[in-house]
Each structure stands twice: as structure tokens, then as C-alpha cells.
Amino acid sequence: MERNSGPSGNHTIFRPEHLGEGGFLHAPIIFGPGINTQVTSYTDLLKSFASHGFVVVGANLLTGGPNAPNNRAAMLERRDWIIEQNSKAGSAYQGKIDVEHAVSMGYSVGGTAAVEIGGHEAVATVVSIHGHIVTAALHGPMLQTSGTQDTVGLPMQQKTYDMSQTQTFLATVMGADHGYITRDVGGVQRPAIVAWLRYWIYNDTGGKHYSTAMIA
User: Fold this and answer.
1) Considering only CA atoms, which of 84, 162, 68 is closest in space to residue 116?
2) Separation CA 185–CA 183 (nearest Å)
3) CA pair distance 110, 95, nearest whole angstrom
4) Which residue ranges form the domains of the chain, and what is each CATH number?
5) Which of 112, 113, 142, 186 would suit a FRET pair with 136, their CA atoms being 20 to 30 Å apart?
6) CA dihedral in degrees (207, 210, 213, 214; nearest 10)?
7) Order of strands across the sheet with 102-107?
8) How far is CA 60 from the centre of its chain?
9) Is 90 exceeded by the pLDDT of residue 200?
10) HSE (CB half, 13 Å, CA atoms) of 178?
């Protein structure tokens, strides 16, 4: 975990200790936390993603509500920065980032902003965790997660699902509330998200059964 990194020093990065071994290219995950929540609150979850070879660039803090322009701007800054690092001379990430398979991801307001920035050509898939109502011109598949006890958020996620013009899977956990992902390293949502990422980014068919609805 690298604190105070990225543009303006207001990012936290979770990544494998050794980068680019054997020519491996690391897909970046641009992650937005919930409102007024430090990204380090999700350390165990984001380290789990990094253990699968991803470089997670987390916004330290998002302070706006759903669809706030400053949330989107913060996520855009992180997306553009990590992509630029791949070609920047002297960067620790030079030649080691898969700039064609980025992931836009976030929780709550971060999940909303993740959709908003997901139309970039580099973003291969979007993961919106307990997000809100949002639409964007996406070109890759989207995973939404929610819970039956997220009584405010689930109807919002349903509206996002209904408006989506790309392949979209809305996964709902029985009994899960809005804060479910923040406990127990993400609960059952974490392995499902990992499988989704490994399937769509690494073409790992071991995660195929989580994506059946998308490829049938």
C-alpha cells in the first residue's frame, strides 16, 4: 500500500509488491470510496484485488453526494494519471500497466462516479457497488451489486440497470444492507467481484459461472 501517491498526493495505491514480472501487464482499478470515507477503510478488500495482479488507485476521499461533479472529477484524475504512468519515463509503472483493460469501480457515491467515468476507451468493465441512479455511454460490461436490505439503494441500482445500454448484471445479496461491502472483507460480494474481474480482464473461465447471464 502506497499512501499519499498519485497526482496531488491524494491517492492511495494498492498493488503487487513486484510489478511487471515476466512482462505481465497489470490492469488498473480506479476506485472511489463512499462519501466522506477514507479509502483506507477498504484496505483489506482492495489488497485482495491487488493480490490478483491489479493496481488499485483509490481516491483518498470523496465528499460529494450522488452524481456530484467533484466526485467524477476526482475519479477522472486518477484514471488519467495511472494510464499516463505507463508511458512516463522513470515511472515505477512504465510499461507495466494494461492500458486497454482498466476497471472503473466504487462503492456508494464512488460506485456512481465509477459508472460516470466508465465510457473511456481504456475501461473494459465497470463495477458499481451499492451505487445510485446514473447512466453513461459504456462500451464494456457492468456489474452492479446491492442487497435486499439496502432499501434505498436497491431501487436506485434497479433504475441504473434498467437504463443501461450495455451488458449488465445486477447481483443482489439476500439480507445485505447498504454497508455490507464494508464488513468481513466484502462478504460474498468480494469473491463474486474477483471472479468477474478475472473473467472479463484475464479471460479466466474459472469465473464464468458468475457471468453466465452476460454471455448466454
Assistant:
1) 68
2) 6
3) 28
4) 2-215 (3.40.50.1820)
5) 186
6) -50
7) 2-5, 11-14, 55-59, 28-32, 102-107, 123-129, 142-147, 168-173
8) 14
9) yes
10) 15
